[in-house]
């Protein structure tokens, strides 16, 4: 690795460890993700515990809470502590308008999210984060892991020259791209927005590489071939560097909360023809700034 890459890793991994009083936090990797224990989401959490969960969220970006046998109401209550809940698009026919049921049917050809992305980046104000509660993973625990990538580190490990180029660019994100050749669900509202290629986290002010292959269409400051070549290189940076990643292995009643602003994720559809059932609640964010 180049020295600037080693320096980026060292800055991240040598930060003083935070001390917690009300929860236990066990990192999944040195750079992203943590399992949090000592939390019972069936109950209203005290303010000091919520504050520590929020601190761990900003530090680790992906929080895994095991053995949470919670109701939809418990799920919504926990998510609401982090911001305004985001309505499902399109609205569900039955059930709460903020709960997206994610069902993999037997022998499905593909599943949503089977490529690196962050949720809803085509929106003018993308999601702050998502909470996925898996009730029934694939039978026998076979497959269905989710990979997460630290997009702070993805940016920091680029060369200084490349970072300087990207800092002045924007990209177009189009929700239609996510459907490919598939029909758009009835009632779904698609969005198209322009964001900086490099955004700043609104709470930590750290820079984030903010392009992904599901939603990003092009960089308007470049010709189409230049834009595609640069985007393809950046996508390979995310997908081809396991150092940026953590892997979450699902078990029944696992809840994972990730920061859509600085994390991308990839659903592994390696459990065909088995099924999976989960519920997701998303939280509103705000406009992104470079």
Please specify the SSE layout and strand pairing:
Blueprint: H1 3-13, E1 24-27, E2 34-37, H2 47-60, E3 62-65, H3 72-80, E4 85-86, E5 100-104, E6 129-136, E7 146-150, H4 151-156, H5 160-166, E8 170-174, E9 192-196, E10 198-200, E11 207-209, E12 216-218, H6 224-239, E13 245-248, E14 254-259, E15 263-267, E16 276-283
Parallel strand pairs: 2-3
Antiparallel strand pairs: 1-2, 3-14, 4-16, 5-16, 6-14, 6-16, 7-13, 7-15, 8-9, 8-12, 10-11
Structural summary, described in words:
There is one protein chain. Strands 1, 2, 3, 4, 5, 6, 14 and 16 form an 8-stranded mixed beta sheet that branches. Strands 13-7-15 form a 3-stranded antiparallel beta sheet. It has a 3-stranded antiparallel beta sheet with strand order 9-8-12. The two termini are 27 Å apart. The longest helix is centred in the last third of the chain and has 16 residues, at 224-239. The chain has helices at 3-13, 47-60, 72-80, 151-156, 160-166, 224-239, and strands spanning 24-27, 34-37, 62-65, 85-86, 100-104, 129-136, 146-150, 170-174, 192-196, 198-200, 207-209, 216-218, 245-248, 254-259, 263-267, 276-283. It is α+β, with helices and mostly antiparallel strands and 290 residues long. The protein has 6 helices and 16 strands. It is 22% helix and 26% strand.
